[in-house]
Amino acid sequence: MFRQSEEIDQRDIGIYTRVSTEEQAREGLSLDEQKNRLESYCHAMGWNQHIRFFIDEGESAKNLERPQLKLLMEEVKENNLSRIIVTKLDRLSRKLSDLLALIDLFQSHKVSFISISESFDTNTPSGRLTLQVLGAVAEFERERIRERVIDNMFHAANQGQWLTSAPFGYKLADKRLVIDENEANIVRRIYGMFLKENMGYFAIAKKLNEEGIPSHTGKEWWNRTIKLMITNPAYKGTTIWNRLAGSTEKREKKDVEEWVIIEGTHEPIIDPEIWEEVQKKAEKKRLPARSQRSTHLLSGILKCGLCGSGMSHDRAGSKNSKYGVYRCSANKNKGTCTGKVYRSAELELLFKESLLQLSKDFTLHFLPSIEPAKDALTSTALQQKVHNAKKRYQRKVEAYTAGLIEMEDLQNEKERMDTLVSELEASEVIEVNPKAIEENIKSKLRTLMNVMDQLPVSVTKALIKEVVEKVVVKGEHDIEIHLK
């Protein structure tokens, strides 16, 4: 359990080869030659994972519509491959935009991409530098495309066309909103519950969830979903576009002068006068903004023991006697969990008492199959030899890919490196002392207890998160503390 080792990705290696009929006739490019060279490269690098071949014969690289390339992409999405190797970059694609799109797909699934002729490997610093340069060029192209798209969208919005997915209560027909009567009746009912029955966002969401009415996504209703529906001008027949900066991470609201506002673009579900009346009432019921830096001790690590959802801090009690509580977010926002509300002062005190007890009684248990090693001996000189051997072998690999040496020379160098690595592994034993580990954890817990009531909450929370993964509330006097 405690042995230190580099985790090896055991997923398959994908070898992709391609040749068009024209290229084969002109340059004599052979699929077998590509296949053999790439297979030899894998063996030379000491990669023992299963190798899978994706071979497109007589296929052009002008686009991504190639049978075996599509299959390769599907295997990447299924997380079945660890590496993809080609002889040259243009085997994968001749278009920069397509190449970058493929590499982005590989990166998102933690698949390294290697081209042996250009010595391009997304796992190396030089490979990542090349990728960043290519990415900068692509970013410039994307900005130019974005400008053209924005111009087109401004034109479409001014023509009254709807530019995104239809809001709940509508469906799209020729890029225009058409009322869906089944959903529209629910929208009218929500507005009525809010305006006439004086129900809040949470009460409306809870009522709809209890009745089993699905939301636009087919999932449960949230208080914030109701709030967004109540304030959406689309329901009074108005199209508003360009309110938010789409290229920024926080999507900040733009100045009103930049908005595109067109009245009467589609049939309203809610009468405009009623909609305006609802907005006046909604101003008084504005949801509090979520705090980016909670000042409550257990925020972020506290979990509901019934449903597993996070628990957030809230206020409860009478108007003149408020006190802090922690409550399940599924209970608070959707009404779908029956978890209790716990006073924050009592829960935080229980947490501190439990930590104190852990700092005294913590015991480390090993799995029966794990035996702690007793001795430790590391040879610095041998480590240096292994380091030099790996560098020397990497140079040999580069020489082989350039055609300067034979496969036999590369294999001999690999054997010499493997011998040194085996010697180092045989001499290198990691010492695991259970008592020392227990004392280290207890020491961290004691330190945490000593400073908990003296430092600001924000600092204390950071220290807690270094030791504690989560706290699960089982009852008023029952919590589970999961250490990292």
Automatic annotation (TrEMBL):
For this protein, the record's CDD domains field holds: SR_ResInv (cd03768)
User: Which branch of life, at top level?
Assistant: Bacteria
**UniProt domain Recombinase: residue ranges:** 167-289
For this protein, the record's Pfam families field holds: Recombinase (PF07508), Resolvase (PF00239), Zn_ribbon_recom (PF13408)
What region holds the Resolvase/invertase-type recombinase catalytic domain?
12-160
Identification of the protein by name: Site-specific DNA recombinase
